[in-house]
Design brief:
- The chain has twelve helices and ten strands.
- It has helices at about 20-25, 45-60, 75-85, 105-110, 120-125, 125-140, 160-175, 190-200, 215-235, 260-275, 285-295, 320-325; strands spanning about 15-20, 30-35, 65-70, 90-95, 115-120, 145, 180-185, 205-210, 245, 305-310.
- The structure holds pyridoxal-5'-phosphate (PLP).
């Protein structure tokens, strides 16, 4: 089957910048690929995945995008923004109760006109059933649904990061540093799966390294392999699943939902020293893992390391209280 058409949504190629002060502190050349700048509302790694997911939705004649995630899901916000931009409807199944006041990504989802359904933890355990139910509801009303899985993570979404690897290889070909390692946050591992595919197709010379921020490394590895096998089988890609998939394990902390002072400190450090803001749930945890790895062994990932900043800035705002305390040097209430 052919690869779905790519619907142009992301602002790319995204810039690559050197983190000068951090590079000196860590004894490596550390760079950021600014995938947080792929857009404003339709941004981060999600919009690269959506170029192919929405391409497939449009090819099928869909008029409603259905997706799911946490209350502060970056994927749900990007889906809401893209749906509004394209004149489609967005229906979202989110995990959690309706808050008295909207904040961060959820506030944007509502502003962007998404239809939000709040699911209990138990209901979210069976989110695939909930998504099927929402699709049926749309059909009953005469609409044409297209379902996007959590984090946009399937073989179609992964094509967005296949293209990111192609983009990066092109940037290296045009004078960007020849990175020894490219490091990316791994929740489902869908983005890393895409990079691993693009690496082979485009001859990207760098090792592709993921930092799992929620699930055990073995689960992330399985999910990456499954996604690659599906893509290879479905789209007939002339690539192989690599024998080893490089993950920096041990940085999941207390899981995805829990954000501790360590992540908030990393956000504050990078913001004050380099003028870049990470998100608390995904990139701060992964970046903390990268810094810890390099502090223990500055050569662990080679001399030139590029971290892909996958966005998520809006989920910073619901952490305003813990961040305020941290910035003012007051004791934390949760550690
Ligand atoms: C900001 C951000 N970075 C990284 C990820 C992880 O992406 P993946 O599920 O492809 O591993 C997510 C996914 O939810 C995210 O929102």
């Amino acid at each position: 089957m052919a690869v779905p058409p790519r619907y142009p949504l992301a602002l790319c190629p995204t810039p690559i910048l050197k983190l000068d002060r951090l590079s000196r502190q860590l004894g490596v050349e550390l760079y950021l690929k600014r995938d947080d700048l792929t857009g404003l509302l339709e941004s981060g790694n999600k919009v690269r995945k959506l170029e192919f997911l929405v391409g497939e939705a449009a090819a099928e004649g869909a008029d409603t995008l259905i997706s799911c995630g946490t209350l502060q899901s970056n994927c749900c916000r990007a889906v809401s923004a893209v749906a509004a931009r394209l004149g489609m409807r967005a229906v979202l199944a989110v995990k959690g109760g309706k808050p008295a006041t909207y904040d961060g990504n959820l506030l944007l989802d509502r502003l962007l006109g998404a239809d939000i359904r709040y699911l209990s933890d138990a209901e979210f355990e069976r989110v695939d059933e909930a998504l099927d139910g929402l699709a049926e509801e749309v059909r009953q009303r005469g609409g044409r649904p297209y379902v996007i899985p959590e984090s946009g993570s399937n073989e179609v979404g992964a094509l967005g990061y296949l293209e990111c690897a192609v983009e990066l290889a092109g940037q290296i070909g045009q004078g960007a540093p020849r990175f020894d390692s490219v490091v990316i946050t791994a929740f489902s591992g869908g983005s890393q799966a895409g990079l691993l595919m693009g690496k082979q197709l485009a001859g990207l010379p760098s090792d592709v390294v993921g930092v799992p921020i929620a699930f055990p490394a073995a689960r992330v590895r399985d999910s990456i392999v499954r996604t690659m096998v599906k893509a290879i089988t479905r789209f007939g890609l002339a690539i192989e699943v690599p024998k080893t998939i490089h993950l920096l394990d041990g940085y999941q902390g207390r899981g995805r939902a829990a954000v501790g002072d360590e992540e908030l400190r990393v956000i504050a450090k990078l913001a004050a020293e380099e003028g870049v803001v990470l998100d608390p749930v995904y990139t701060a945890k992964a970046f903390a893992g990268l810094m810890d790895t390099l502090r223990k062994d500055p050569r662990a990932l080679g001399q030139r390391v590029c971290f892909i900043h996958t966005g998520g800035i809006f989920s910073l705002f619901p952490f305003r209280e813990s961040l305020s305390r941290l910035l003012d040097g007051e004791p934390s209430r949760h550690s």
